[in-house]
Amino acid sequence: MASRGSTAVANQSSVVKWVLRFLVIGYLLMLVAWPTAYVVKHTFADGLTGIQDALADPDVVHALKLTAQIAVIAVIINTVFGVGMSLLLVRKTFIGKRALSVLIDLPLSVSPVVVGLALVLVYNGRFGWFGPWLEDHGIQVIFAKPGMIMATCFVILPLVIREVVPVLEELGDDQEQAARSLGANARQTFMRITLPGIKWAVVYGVVLSLARALGEFGAVKVVAGNVGGETQVATVLVQQKYQNFQQETAYSVAFMLVFMAVLCLVVVALLRPKEQES
Amino acid sequence: MSIEIKGVNKKFGDFVALDDVNVSLPTGQLTALLGPSGGGKSTLLRIIAGLDSADTGTISIEGTNATELPPQKRNVGFVFQHYAVFKHMTVAKNVAFGLEIRKRPKAEVAEKVDELLRLVHLSQFAHRLPSQLSGGQRQRMALARALAVEPTVLLLDEPFGALDAKVRKELRDWLRRLHDEVHVTTVFVTHDQEEAMEVADEIVVINEGRVEQVGTPDQLYDEPANDFVMGFLGEITTLNGVMLRPHDVHISLTPQLPGAAEGTISRLLRVGFEVRATVLTDDGDEVTVVLTRTHARQLGLETGVRVWVTAASGALTMPSLSVAR
After folding, report:
1. d(Cα A52, Cα A55) in Å, to the nearest integer?
2. Tens-digit pLDDT profile for residues A174-192
3. Interface A:B, Cβ pairs < 8 A
4. What span, in angstroms and rounded, lies between the C-alpha atoms of B146 and B96?
5. Which residues of B touch A175 (CB under 8 A)?
6. Contact, B120 vs B144, CB < 8 A?
7. CB contact, 8 Å: B224 with chain A?
8. Mean per-residue pLDDT, A52-74
9. Mean pLDDT across the stretch B161-184?
């Protein structure tokens, strides 16, 4: 999109061009770069001691591990369902398809806190709609990992689908039909034709969901017990440490979260051009 | 008979795409499904391939009832109008696809791919991606890909429709030669009557979901079953209550033949070697006459000249109000 913008602007006078550049760069600087840089600055104010101290705290290590665990599981679930639902939305016609399409965007518009509350209402072990039955069968959802994974899945639901659907639509079903006529069954067609075609959309969707899952706060905070060392994820820990005047630790963990997210984006940026050459 | 189609009906909502179609397509021949756009010919082809299903009726291919078989079990090769190439695979991989799905030994696949690429003159492009090929080359690749699985029938859906006129003509000749070499039962869909007449052994004319006529190109041209077929296979004009081809109209400056209608030339249009004259007869008919540039010059035709027009001897004529069905 950046290149399209610059070609359009190229026709205008250079003054307008510079003003626009200044505005965009200034906006990004004030909103994103500067605050993030401050987190980094505070993290490394005393060299690496901040990070070392933070990692010495067992609660921090546990929170980071838990966050990673929940994010990976939620992303795997979301990828499988996301690709499946995208295929359903693009390739099949059925009653209620538009309603489903709208429903998928719901997590984007609803506050994550509401999502958390809704899950508590349904799966709560004491007065929930479905929770007591599950608890009788030995499955605790709320204040435990299943609930946290569900909350994360809910929040990242649209991210894979919204990446994959337009690519599937553009791809069309010609190639799939050709594969079928050449003897491929449904699974072979998907693995050899459809999946390679949507590969990059899926990768982007996964990276976006992973970044979002690592940073999820509201929904997870409501459904998790937030007991340090047990059911506390990294984002909640950052908030708690910050409020307890352990700013050093809060900044260090915040930096690690940012670092992971940036790493995801860099990995994709490095992978992509290689793929296009081959 | 290679493909038997019996009592096939197909509706899309209220639209009747196929209306009780019964036709048999012979083994080893090149058959054209010819008709105007939206007439149901592509739908019929897709039903033969199993890409669409008929509402009622049966399809059998080489004696096997294929009505309920999914496309991958019908052993048909299908070539799409817009090529449907596998974009992420090289030309060789595209052609090898069907064989790899069938788990043939590697050496056999390589040999077969080599042979087919030679057949379609794409050997030097084996390791390119389809995006580096021209439209004509892509369609030849798609053809090789379809032929690789040694299909019982080869189905082509407007195979040259997306190509420019010159390439289309080349590929048309090439398809005919290819068919003479491989002899696989081939059915292709086209709306271009010239293409059908030039390439096909047999033509099935389809209009508004019905089969209008089945026959060789000569039969269709010389003995059209009805006015639709006559009109679709070439231009027609009406003179003295009969329909005939504009080049079958005899035009003269004096009343030479009995029964000739007198009229005035209202318009002359030259297209290359051809001159198209519009004659307004005194009976009120508007007759189109096609003659060569040389002939028109010999007669000295110009707008406003009085002429006599009649059907030339041996011309194919058909009563103009007949509905021959």
Report:
1. 5
2. 899 999 989 899 999 999 9
3. 61
4. 10
5. 84-87
6. yes
7. no
8. 91
9. 86
Residue B107: what residue type? A
For residues A108 and A160, what is the distance between their CA atoms, to the nearest angstrom? 13
Say whether pLDDT at A197 is over 50: yes
Read off the amino acid at residue A198.
I
Q: Which residues pair with A233 in a beta bridge?
A: none
State yes or no: pLDDT of B22 exceeds 90: yes
CA distance A141 to A260: 28
- Written as one letter, the residue type at B3 is I
Distance between A175 CA and the closest CA of chain B, angstroms: 5
**Alpha carbon of A236: minimum distance to chain B alpha carbons (Å):** 44
Contact map slice: B 138-157 vs A, CB within 8 A? 142, 145-146, 148-149
Q: What confidence category does residue B86 fall into, taking pLDDT thresholds of 50, 70 and 90?
A: very high
Alpha carbon distance A161, A208 (integer Å) = 11
Q: Is there a contact between A178 and B76 if contact means CB atoms under 8 Å apart?
A: no
Q: Average pLDDT over chain B, rounded to whole?
A: 89
Cα(B243)–Cα(B316) distance, integer angstroms? 8
Q: Report the residue of chain B nearest A173, measured CA to CA.
A: B84
Residue A8 has pLDDT above 60, yes or no: no
Supply the DSSP symbol for B260. P
Position B138 scores a pLDDT of 92
Chain A CB within 8 Å of residue B125 CB: no
Is B49 part of the contact surface with chain A (CB cutoff 8 Å)? yes
Distance between CA atoms of residues A118 and B284, nearest Å:
82
Measure the CA–CA gap between B249 and B306, rounded to whole angstroms.
15
Read off φ and ψ for residue A175, nearest 5 degrees: -65, -40
Contact (CB, 8 A) for A142 and A131: yes
* pLDDT at residue A247 greater than cutoff 90: no
Residue B157 near residue B82, CB atoms below 8 Å: no
Average pLDDT, integer, range B34-56: 91
Q: From the candidates A181, A191, A192, which should be mutated to test the interface with B, based on the most B CB atoms within 10 A?
A: A181
Interface touch A175/B102, C-beta < 8 Å: no
Burial of B162 (0-12, 13-18, 19+ CB in 10 A): middle
Q: Which two tokens stand for residue B306?
A: 């009085």
For residue A1, pLDDT beyond 50: no
The mean per-residue pLDDT over the stretch B166-183 comes to 87
For residue range A12-53, list pLDDT tens digits in order: 678 899 999 999 999 999 998 998 888 888 888 888 888 888
Strands B15-25 and B317-319: unpaired
Cβ atoms within 10 Å of B109's Cβ, excluding its own: 20
Output the pLDDT for position A39. Answer: 85
Q: Is the pLDDT of residue B314 over 90?
A: no
The token pair that represents A195 in the structure block: 């999946």
Burial A189-201 (b: 16+ CB within 10 A, else e): bbebbbeebbebb
H or E segment to which residue A126 belongs: none
Tokens of B69: 């078989």
Count Cα atoms within 13 angstroms, Cβ side, for A173. Answer: 11
